[in-house]
Amino acid sequence: MITILSKQFSLVNSWINDLRNVDVQQDRMKFRRNMERIGEIAAFEISKTLEQKTVEITTPLEKITSQEIAVQPVITTILRAGVPMFQGLLNYFDKADCGFVAAYRKHDANDYFSIKQDYLTCPDLNGRPLIVADPMLATGASLIEAIKDLLNHGKPTEMHIVAAIASQQGVETIQNAYPNAKLWIAVIDEKLTSKGYITPGLGDAGDLSYGEKLQR
Known about the structure:
Largest sheet: 8 strands, mixed
Shape: globular
GO molecular function, one term: glycosyltransferase activity
Pfam families: UPRTase
InterPro entries: PRTase-like (IPR029057), PRTase_dom (IPR000836), PyrR_bifunctional (IPR050137)
Protein name: Uracil phosphoribosyltransferase
Helix content: 25-40%
CATH class: Alpha Beta
Keywords: Glycosyltransferase, Transferase
CATH topology: Rossmann fold
CATH architecture: 3-Layer(aba) Sandwich
Number of helices: 6
Structural class: alpha/beta
């Protein structure tokens, strides 16, 4: 299942426009906040699909029964570009547990890359919904590697993947690898460059959030 958050016009469209706009991108705080907002909207939509349980609430006047999330999710992201979107998800799923993956593209002299993954920490996933924030779903290679390692920590009841911008190729790659995963994507771009970058895309989400890095 795939849900395109910008399919019906809303503020998501405006936030994506600002994320792409080279003039607005100079404001790092706004860039991070817009990623965070997309995470918040995705969290709200995901929450509608989660299993519920009945709970008893005591108000100052009486006891009532109501509905609550049956099992709190585990929210994970790939450092560092995913942190703002991850924070947006965590703002809404504020009782969730969290996991982190350190993965990156290692570029050669011709700017082609392989995926390097150095670190992962995650709670037990057995019997819990898993939500993975990956703001730029390009080829899908780093996300597949991250999920593969995350699933060594248990079998989640369901898996949700949240992205701001995805390529059509990346979406198809993830759907083929994990056909039961639910994708929540703000917008899909049709093309990847020959070197695996989304176009028109928005550039490097990590650098735009936190500054340019030295690649080691």
